[in-house]
Amino acid sequence: MNIHILGAGSLGLLYAAKLAAAGNDVTLWCRSVQQAEKIGTEGISLEHTAGERTVVQPDRIETYPLSAFLARGGAEEADYLFLMLKQQGIEETAKQVLLPFGDAKRRLVCFQNGTGHMELLNRFLPAWELYAAITTEGAKRNGAASVLHAGHGTTTIGKLPQAEGSSGLEQEDESEIELVKQLNRAGFESFLSKEMEEMIYRKLLMNAVINPLTALWRVRNGELLASPQRVAIMRALYDEGKAVYKAGNIPFGSHLWEQIEQVCRSTSDNTSSMLKDVLEGRTTEAAWINGSIVRMGRRYRVATPHHELILQLIEGMTI
Where does the Ketopantoate reductase C-terminal domain start and stop, copy by copy (predicted)? Predict the structure, then answer.
């Protein structure tokens, strides 16, 4: 398939490398000219926790800066575009990069944490088919052209009814089935789902429990389970979020706490994106993760003191 990936952070590099290695035509759009040139010269180094390392050669991946997206036709030839930028960059990218093609037909798969981005993108891109993607893959960017696959997870993709004005009950078409097939061929355990709303809220609470605590304590995911005191704080955030969901009749399935523990174990060596943002002095996604829980709590009149405190602590770490 022809896949364009917007964003060359840890997940963007991981998916680009593995999809290209599996024989797909991959174009990677980078924020900086320097990164695009480096990947175009060196390819992508893909490292594994077992110590193995493979290099996806530069002739397997096309790379351009996002600033060239308009001039190069807006990925007209793509079967799918993967949006792998963080929440804080979505509105700017939608306005400056994607909006000129808002009336064209594109298929956009959105890998963002938190909530609200699908509705925003739907306003800017009314003719596009929008998909939500939930992944628990662990990745750590080691350099502009190097990524560590820090933990295997799953990738679930599906349309949201509110993003396309439909009932959400449509049958999968051949293109969607082929996309999941190619993801699995590339080594990503992947699925199509008609229950993406539930998946999004599961991932939201999972991120709200794991990511900010790794950032505050400066620890990797697996270290959250190292002491009863840490687990107790995780559980307090989880219980508070669960109370909000129940008050708002928000679906989140079953055994979510067990899945949170499992994700910590399966990505034990992973440095969360929020911790990396804090270490590098960047704005985090806390406003879209814990902030989403806080806003829903106000809407449904459920107190969220733990999430409010966590949000203030994280936002106070960057000036």
Answer: 196-316
